[in-house]
Amino acid sequence: MIKKNFKLQLANLKKSTYVGLEMPHFNDPMDVSTYTTPLAISLACGNEMDYGTLFSYLFRRFGYPNHGWDDYKQLAKYILTTPLPDMVLMIVPYCGNDTSLHFSFMVSFEVSQKIRDYDRRDYLVWRERKFDWVEANKMLPDWMESGLEYLNRENKVSVTWRQAFDSMGILHFVEEGKEPVSVGYDWQQEIHEAFAKIEQPPSPCPRRSYDWREWPDVDPCKNYNQAAYESLLDLKRPVEVRDIFINAFGQMKSPGRQRVLSGASSAGYPSGALGNDDPKGFAEIHDTISKLGGGNTKRGIKKALSILKTSIKGQFTKWK
Questions:
Q1: In what order do the strands lie in the sheet with 239-241?
Q2: What are the E-state strand segments in the chain?
Q3: Taking the model in full, what pTM does it have?
Q4: Same domain? 94 vs 33
Q5: Considering Cα of 213, then 218, then 224, then 226, what sign does the dihedral take?
Q6: Is residue 3 part of a domain?
Q7: Is 312 inside any structural domain?
Q8: Which residues lie below 8 Å from residue 120, measured CB to CB, with a gap of 6+?
Q9: I need a labelling partner for 104 at 20 to 30 A (CA). Which of 12, 135, 140, 287 fits?
Q10: What's CA 117's distance to the chain center, in Å?
Q11: Of 90, 175, 165, 180, nearest in space to 135 by CA
């Protein structure tokens, strides 16, 4: 469900694995490839955006970048919320001004898997019939039990052979002084080819149209593309610097009916000055403060200040 009255904010990443939102293969008369700028990005932002203007806006609206970045390849990195709780917007202003390189969307691993399974839905149903056939014909190999024990031990999970099927390609018999013998991959290929003679695997899912708004509502990728579009539109909200209004696209003559946002609360504070003097040391202080507050930075700062003031007061009394 997409939030109403959404407004971009700095994101606090959850304890989860995030992966890039995969753009699907498109079916387009212009032969659009998977590497073309997603329509949500080009519709909201065009194909080019000035990186300096974008960074100025982000700095004024959100304050200092909230995530570490590659100090050699990247200018800065902001990670922002989106209308969906399991997707974030990552902005790394690219000095070549290409919007497809400014913006990317990250989703939880579970969401990525859900989208991938939707695209493979016919194949997954066919595969379950293949697995039923394997069991009905008692085709599980003698090494299956020990192979599963190895996979479960390595991955620190407990799964059935069906759940572990895709991972079996790594299984080899290893004997001292001899070349490893593949058993997992060979068995995968053997049963795939045998069942395909009985029932051919389904054709790949048809490519989507380039316009996500034309996709069926049951397509899980549709909602995430719509949320991506709405997130980027929010970059048009104006923020004020003295009597000048700006958004991510540049100076505005007038904000019109749009509500002007307040600048970041950190505006005017040299919060990054200590980091300029000792970036590694300051990063360690930041991490320590976060732990001190149990993940709540404000609480951690309050505790850290109390400790520091008590320490300084004690030293002052000693000196006195």
A1: 239-241, 244-247, 250-252
A2: 18-20, 78-81, 87-91, 103-108, 172-173, 181-182, 239-241, 244-247, 250-252
A3: 0.81
A4: yes
A5: positive
A6: no
A7: yes
A8: 205
A9: 287
A10: 18
A11: 165
CA separation for the pair 144, 147 (Å, rounded)? 5
- 171 part of a folded domain: yes
Indicate whether 133 and 160 sit together in one domain: yes
Record the tokens describing residue 253, joined without a space. Answer: 């003559």
3-state secondary structure of 270: coil
Tens digit of pLDDT at every position of the chain (320 positions): 566 689 999 998 877 789 888 765 555 544 444 445 678 899 999 999 999 999 999 999 999 998 889 989 999 999 999 999 999 999 999 999 999 899 999 999 999 999 989 988 999 999 999 999 999 999 999 999 999 999 888 888 888 999 999 999 999 887 777 888 889 999 999 999 999 999 999 987 777 888 899 999 999 999 999 999 999 999 999 999 988 999 999 999 888 888 888 888 888 888 888 888 888 888 888 889 888 888 788 898 898 888 888 887 666 555 44
In this structure, the answer to whether residues 128 and 250 fall within a common structural domain is: no
Instruction: List the alpha helices (DSSP H) in 162-296.
Output: 184-198, 220-233, 273-277, 279-292
Comparing CA positions, the residue from 94, 58, 95 lying closest to residue 249 is: 58
Tokens of 97: 């001004």
Cβ contacts of residue 168 below 8 Å, gap of 6+? 147, 151, 184, 185, 187, 188
Residue 170 and residue 41 in one domain: no
Positive or negative CA dihedral for 171, 175, 177, 178?
Answer: negative
| Structural domain count of the chain | 3
Distance (Å, rounded) from C-alpha 167 to C-alpha 211? 35
Q: DSSP for 43-54?
A: HHH-SB--HHHH
Q: Are residues 297 and 255 in the same domain?
A: no
Residues 24 and 60 grouped into a single domain: yes
